Amino acid sequence: MELETAKTNTTEEIDFYKDTDLSVSYHSHDSDNTQNDNKDENILDISNHSQASYDNCNDGNNIIHDLKTMRCNNAKNIIVGHLNVNSLRNKFLSIKELLDSNIDIFLLNETKLDDSFPINQFRIEGYRLFRYDRSRFGGGLCLYVHEDIPCREIECVFLQGNEFLCVEINLRKRKWLIIGLYKPPQNNTSLFLEQISNQVNESLKTYENILLIGDFNITPDNIHLKDFLHTHDFENLVKSPTCFKSDTPSCIDLILTNQSQLLMKTSTFETGISDFHALITSIMKMTYTKGNPNIKLYRDYKHFNNVNFEEEIHSKFRDIPNINYDIFEETYLKVLDNHAPIKKKILRSNENPFMTKALRKAIMVRSKLKKKFLKNRSKLNWRKYKNQRNFCTNLLKQTKRNYFSNLNLSSLSDSRKFWKKIKPLFSDKGASSNKIIICDKENIISDEKKVADLMNNHFTNITKELNLKPDVIPDKRPYTLDSIIDKFKDHKSIKIIKTFHNIPKNAFTFKEVSTSEIENAIKDLKINKGSLSNCIPAKIIKENSSTCILYLKQLINESILSSTFPNKLKLAEVIPIYKKGDPLDKENYRPISLLSHVSKIYERILFNQINDYIEPYLSELLTGFRKNHGTQHSLMRMIEDWKKLLDKGYHIGVVYMDLSKAFDVLKHDLLLAKLEAYGFTYDSIRYIQSYLTDRMQRTNVNSQFSIWEKTHIGVPQGSILGPLFFNIYINDIFHFVNKCTLCNYADDNTMYTYDRDLSNLKVQINLDFENLDLWFYDNYMVLNPKKCEFMYLGKSKENQIINYKQYNLKAKETKVLLGVVIDNKLSFKDHISSICKKASRKMNALNRISSLLNHNEKITILNSFIQSQFNYCPLVWMFCLRASNNKINKIHERALRVCQNDYVSTFENLLYNTNSLDIHSKNIQKLMIEIYKCLNHLSPPIMKNFFTIRENCYNLRNFRDLESGSVKTVNCGLNTILYRGPQLWQQVPEYIKNSENLNLFKSRLKSWQNFDCPCNTCKTYIKGLGYM
């Protein structure tokens, strides 16, 4: 029945193309040829094309029609295709139209892309994309595989240095190795085939079925190719000419396989897309399981009336004498279903506003004219085709230009349309396929329900794969709170918390909440954030808060008094988020929990009370998940400390440590014991215990759900309380480091120490490495050995190594920490090269589309994608090398020239015209803001006493100047925030320094902008004299 429906739908589409009249009226441009032109051989008049000129077009041999016919006749088979596209960037829309579920595995040659083109720019919904880029001037491959076909990229060791893509596909327990390739004409044929031969020999150990496809630039009668086919028992399936570059067509686009009996109906098609090459296709005699359509559930607010809804809600609740949360939610949702019913919709893919009816018809005519030229290679036919090809290109550009010019960025709907089309050109965010297929015990699982069950089982049993203490998961016996406290009374962490903080018992208990607290928690809800299926929507809670505030207040207060968290609010739906690596490996997915919106209100209330109490007891070196704390503060503190020590001649050893599954292995009963040590009452601990225990989760894969399973350990990633509980759990770790300093941000731990003697340095590191390793084990956590690294900072030129247990850590020259590339010279040369490279790629993308955008749109993109590359932790690297700063300025200048379409003015004039500053000047402003915050106690504790106050230096406003101290070296002395910052602060006028609040300070500072920066970056260098 499904096959009949598919055939019917496809036949209707075919009839549409057959019935569309595509004949065109032409006019000759060449008066000398007027007498010789017949009605089929007139040259297209490009100067006078309109929509009406295509209304009566007809082309019965349309490529889309042919492919849809082939798809209809082979609805369940896999269709493989290849085309040498000769530059993909301007032909992507046509390729998208061509593919559109007609071809399952599609290879493109000579894509002519480089890494400045994001993968998102060429993604097609419903397909996985594999890329190999050479440069934007030649070569390159793109392989599209339908997302319902289980596949993964394979490393082919014998093909390194060539243009190849090797992808394994799995079809009903039959594995195929698909090798897409391109051989440039100048490459040696014999060597090329020898490398393929070696790879085939190696691959046959694993794969019985191999298919080679691509532009070989070798004809079937080549003696080397014949020898290859004979040796490996391969057969070439392509018999017709595929390349029409010369008067003698040749067959150089080939499909080679050792399983020719499993393929049929190899064909060639003229598409009009490639300059000289035809599309080749072949049909595999096998099928794959088609996935379910992408279905989204939504509430229909078309007939929603707030007044009627609120009246019915209040009426229903008045009739309920004793309300609990289950009754509240059930009643609320029943009324909501009456006013805003849940409906389903299938998400359609490949929306393409640029492919208008006029453009589609123009492309059809172009294909017809090219086909005509290939049959009769006359100058007249070539001129017609060339004119129509240019017309299609210009029409596409004009269509895009009109689309963007008609958008108003101040309109929310237009702004969304703008970013929907712009983001894929600049960012790879969200580039992975929506379809999840995993490998389990050598079996490929594509059924979404089975995938959801397997992923859920993996997430709930994740601790089994880690080397944790045996009692990490409690047995099924219910433990009383007294027994838990007694169990851990001699635990080292519990002892040190009680000894160091000396907190009296019962210092914290939950308080009843007020109406204003509920209102603030509701305001914090994000309407567009994901949530549990079929929960009360945030939109309804926020817009109709009067219907629930009083009831929620009553329910939350009863929950606190009874120390019982509602079971319905302990449900979580897990979304597997792909990280990187093999997409078939479930280890490469991160579980993100979606909770109900009401659960977030409960959690926000509890969070505010716990956080206000625990904040003074948290270490200043614990900087993750805390208000007003950021990665920049943690990095500034460490790096300025390192520079100060290096300036004094010390050796420094740094060990970078990363925890495995940190959130997922947090042990509940040990957390409860630590809370008791921090002074929480038994009632408050019981309430948190109720929140943590009997939690249930299921995994959602494309609206297919696993069974509900109980979680016994960890906190949900995506919750409000989870990060706070993690910080409380790990807070005592700093007391176990004796000789070293430890800085923590989430699951990243950085330990460092210093000494004038290298051997003493290593002893100190080993002692505290052992202390930390023991702490992790006692607290049921484990280090990720792959991410433990060591860096030496200092003047010694010997290779330094740290040996501890299984860790053999050789000194690294660079390390990416919290998104910043740190090098062992602390010059940040590598980091700035990295961000400049990213900014340059985005600059190239802006340059490619600049003709389609107006000035304001270009400035918006400049700020969002290019300048933003330099906005992350800028105070860490701002006093960099002069050459590095010049790199940044060159990128900035290029971007301003494109935005202003000005290639004459100086960089200073470009900045003046846009009323903007260079990156270094912006960073100086940011530094002054940070100093103001430090002096006015607005910075986090880790920045306390970061800047030293100069003694006995008061002005009339009691405002102190800063001490810059004496330094010995340039890079680690002069070029530091602690030295340059006070010098720059000294230049700020007193009325700005004495601003009453931060906003006023920022405003005054921005309007002043008269810094004379003393750093070498801003000085003029004169050969023989130095920096002046």
Description:
The protein has 1028 residues and is α+β, with helices and mostly antiparallel strands. Helices cover 40% and strands 17% of the residues. It has 32 helices and 35 strands. The protein is globular, with a radius of gyration of 33 Å. The N and C termini lie far apart (83 Å). The N terminus is likely disordered.
The averaged pLDDT comes out at: 85
Count of strand segments: 35
Count of helix runs: 32
Sheet of most strands: 6 strands, mixed
The helicity comes to 25-40%
Task: Strand order, main sheet: write it out.
Answer: 5-6-4-3-14-13
Radius of gyration: 33 Å
Would you identify the regions where 5 or more consecutive residues have pLDDT less than 50?
1-61
Structural class comes to: alpha+beta
The termini sit apart by 83 Å
User: What is the molecular shape?
Assistant: globular
Strand content: 15-25%
